[in-house]
Design a protein that fits this description.
By secondary structure, this protein is of the alpha/beta class. It folds into three domains: 56 residues, no CATH class; 81 residues, no CATH class; 200 residues. The protein is built from ten helices and ten strands. It has a ten-stranded mixed beta sheet, covered by helices on one side. 27% of the residues are buried.
């Protein structure tokens, strides 16, 4: 007969989710003693009135932070220190007060996660700012090996990444720092010229895509910076439509492909588009045509790219908007990229 201790982790979490808060978890422990060992760490974390140490910090290796609003909603017990009274107080706080409360509690929480290795941060427009994540990680000298970011790109993030070496997976999606072009460019240059070289010995998976066309895109001027080391397995970048030139020897796409073929262990290079600064989202039909037009330009450059014949290793696959292209021998005896039919 199956017992609680033998249940898969996924089922245990379903049980825990039904409990909703630390009071429910304590009740479960009273009902079934077999849950005691499984829930001990979680109860210690959520029971902020406890004088005991919080052992969950010794086990947590991955943290996911979602900032989707400037209001606390749902059960407040996990965030509060005084139960329902504190939860009611949080709901009455102004957005800037909530931000300060969020920053303070995040700083305190991260200090207990001694084994933290992976962080994922998601933040939308007009939400709680996750900027304190980076300053807290820097304060506690936590060196992540995996970081995934879907949020506004801030200098504090770059400063954190520049404070140590050793990251293996770095994915920054829809990078954007400021509507000020100068500020945006300076931070993008800081990233490719200073931050990336810090991790060149360990980086295996790299994603840096832009929210809109601009300095965060891969281009001829910065493509060499993506040649970051022998360990790189995959790289994903966006390119500006104005930097894809049909009929010329070198542009943003061919520059990146040339770099990709010099990376011995690279298995895949992916290209995507970014929103057009010129048309914006309010230009209707023109805006809708920007993405397919840019994808068509990128695809044409990939298909026409001459794969180096003197390569000492296997050529990487290329992905454009979900379509995979693999090197195949053509009728002219040269290898070129063709759509993968599988």
């Amino acid at each position: 007969m199956t017992n609680i201790a033998s249940l898969p982790v996924e089922l245990l979490f379903m049980v825990i989710e039904e409990a909703k808060c630390h009071r429910g978890l304590k009740a479960l422990r009273c009902v079934n003693k077999l849950l005691t060992s499984s829930l001990e760490m979680l109860c210690a974390l959520s029971d902020s009135g406890s004088q005991r140490s919080r052992p969950i910090g010794l086990y947590v290796q991955c943290l996911i932070i979602r900032c989707f609003g400037r209001l606390f909603s749902g059960p407040g017990a996990l965030l509060s220190s005084n139960g329902d009274d504190d939860s009611d107080m949080l709901r009455k706080m102004k957005p800037d007060e909530i931000q300060r409360e969020f920053d303070e509690r995040l700083l305190k929480a991260l200090g207990s996660l001694k084994q933290l290795k992976s962080v994922q941060v998601f933040s939308g427009f007009d939400c709680l700012s996750p900027s304190s994540v980076w300053s807290s990680l820097l304060t506690h000298q936590i060196s992540l090996t995996s970081l995934i970011v879907w949020a506004k790109t801030e200098k504090s993030l770059m400063d954190y990444l520049n404070s140590y070496s050793g990251i293996q997976e770095l994915r920054i999606h829809r990078a954007w720092a400021s509507s000020d072009t100068t500020v945006d460019r300076e931070l993008a240059e800081y990233f490719v010229e200073t931050v990336l070289p810090r991790h060149q010995q360990t980086l295996r998976d790299l994603t840096i895509t832009a929210a809109e066309e601009g300095p965060w895109a891969a281009a001829r001027w910065n493509s060499e910076r993506y040649e970051v080391g022998e360990e790189l397995r995959s790289v994903e970048v966006s390119v500006n439509s104005e930097e894809v030139y049909p009929g010329v020897d070198e542009d943003a796409v061919t520059s990146m492909l040339s770099v990709a073929h010099r990376l011995r262990n690279l298995r895949c290079v992916s290209f995507c588009t970014a929103e057009s600064k010129r048309w914006g989202s309010s230009w209707g039909w023109l805006s809708q045509q920007h993405e397919p037009h840019t994808i068509a330009l990128i695809t044409q450059r990939v298909l026409n790219f001459g794969i180096p014949q003197d390569s000492q290793h296997e050529s990487p696959n290329v992905e454009v908007d979900g379509q995979v292209y693999k090197p195949k021998l053509g009728e002219d005896g040269k290898f070129r990229y063709s759509p993968d039919d599988v």
